[in-house]
Protein: Reverse transcriptase domain-containing protein
Organism: Macrosiphum euphorbiae
Amino acid sequence: MFADDIKLFMRIQNTNDTLFIQSDLDRMVNLGESLGLTLNIYKCIKIMSYFHIDNPITIVYTIHDIPITCSNFVRDLGFNYSPNLSANCIF
């Protein structure tokens, strides 16, 4: 799979939502592996969270027990994204 092939988005309102998105990640990886595809976790996956509350729900998502990198800024398809959903931040 290429880095920009799949993106998962979900509104996290409680801890059950975090378990659901972890399950989605696991299913995505299992599907890719069943098709003979490999995923370079270190090269292509980043988690970015957007929130406007004082105490957000945080979790470390994993693929094959390897933590997925969290980032405050993500470059995707030539755009730089920041936590306030701006697509023009410079870094």
